[in-house]
Amino acid sequence: MTRRALLAAAAGPFWMAARRGRAAASAYIVYVGTYTRKTSRGIFAYRFEPGAGKITPLGQVVETPNASWLVPDASFKYLYAVNESEFQREPGKPGQVSAFAVDRSTAKLTLLNRVSAVGGGPCHASLDAGGRFLFVANYGTGSIAVLPVEAGGRLGDAVAFVQHKGSSVNPQRQQGPHAHCIMPSPDNRFVLVADLGLDQILIYRFDAARGSLAPNDPPFARVAPGSGPRHFVFHPNGRLFYVVNEMANTVTAFNYDRERGALSEFQTISTLPEGYSERSTSAEILVDREGRFLYTSNRGHDSIAVFAIDPAKGTLSFVEHVSTKGQTPRGVALDPTGTYLFAANQQSDNVVLFRVNRQNGRLRPAGEVLTDATEPVAVVFVPAA
Questions:
Q1: 232-279 pLDDT, tens per residue?
Q2: What is the pTM of this model?
Q3: Structurally, how many domains does the chain consist of?
Q4: What is the C-alpha separation between 264 and 261, in angstroms, rounded?
């Protein structure tokens, strides 16, 4: 794989789309996934023009339960949503994953089909580099599944399934496995999974022809006991890997061996201010497309922590904390131009926009607050037609 292809795979479909057609960056559809326990019944959409800083609400575009994570495909014809089951109330009920066709002119979504996630509480998903398979992490049951993407964007029944086993030191949160994030490596040879209940990043060899998974050697990397790894991100250079630890409120940085699929830790840094003692849990983690800055969200402290990434070593240095102007920022996302950050505040029912200073990574409120979607938790972008 060429260096350009490696960078594109690490940065994701929005970077690749921008390389293919820069004119598409004039306007985007912003899809916001919500929990449907209050008044929301599905996924909301907005038309966003980053050049003008203008955003227009388009309302709820499809009804679907608990769309807590969204994944567009690289062609932007399809959108996939995990439907997170209420695993704590209905422990035997499996979650589902929905496939939608995207109308980029109107932002409307049309349900193609819905299949089992083969586990309870699905909370994260991603596509392999070829767009042939969707990976799903089931938090409630601590399992992962691989679903084939069929012709026309529909999902098939799982072709691979792995049930994690074990526990860690926290008797309330880590009595068993809780798979929380699943993504392929930039070269599509491995699949990595953050398991909050095990304090491990599990690593699988991935067969891109069949969709099968096999334990890697080494099979996992550890974080400090009681950390609770939640989400992770690859640096655009493909050699650095950062995981945000929900329970410890830290980020752990690893060097990534692309040949062996192995991780080696070199730094752990707090996401909270020194001396902060109130309850807070880290949620999302982002790296800007130039690989210069890293962002995490703190639920409780209700902030975004901003870090600068050392270009030679990959180490993180603290820049600032910025209030998200709401409660419980579960989902945050950088727009495809890297100019804006969207913070979805789950408990205060608002999405707040911030302007990104591309020189120093700092954030300032952009003046836009979206309030029509209750319990917003996931934000993705699709180029508008």
A1: 999 999 999 999 999 999 999 999 999 999 999 999 999 999 999 999
A2: 0.94
A3: 1
A4: 10
| Residue 292 CA from chain centroid, whole number | 19
Other beta carbons within 10 angstroms of residue 61's beta carbon come to 23
User: Tokens 């640096």 correspond to what residue?
Assistant: 235
Q: Which neighbouring-strand residues pair with 303?
A: 298, 323
Task: For residue 171, give both structure tokens.
Answer: 């008797």
Take residue 226 and report the two structure tokens written for it: 């009681």
CATH number at residue 360: 2.130.10.10
User: pLDDT tens digit string along 301-341?
Assistant: 999 999 999 999 999 999 999 999 999 999 999 999 999 99
Instruction: Specify the length of the chain in residues.
Output: 385
Q: Which of 58, 62, 96 is nearest to 78 (CA)?
A: 62
Percent share of the chain, pLDDT over 90: 91
Report residue 364 as tokens.
Answer: 């300032």
| Domain that includes residue 155, residue range | 3-383
Structure tokens that stand for 134 in this block? 């969707």
Angle between helices 13-20 and 3-11 (to 10 degrees): 120
80 contact partners, CB below 8 Å, separation of at least 6: 70, 71, 72, 73, 97, 98, 99, 100, 125, 127, 134, 155
Q: Spell out where 250-358 has E strands.
A: 250-257, 262-270, 281-287, 293-299, 303-309, 316-323, 329-334, 340-345, 350-356
Contacts of 106 by beta carbon, 8 Å cutoff, 6+ apart:
58
Which H/E stretch holds residue 381?
strand 376-383
**How far apart are the two ends of the chain, measured CA to CA in Å?**
31
User: CA 173 to CA 139: how far, in whole Å?
Assistant: 11
